[in-house]
Amino acid sequence: MTHTQKTLEQYFAELGVTDADKKTKLLPLITDLIYDRNMHVVNLEAETDEYKKHQIEEGIAELEGEIKRQFESCL
Question: What is the DSSP letter of 7?
Answer without folding.
Answer: -
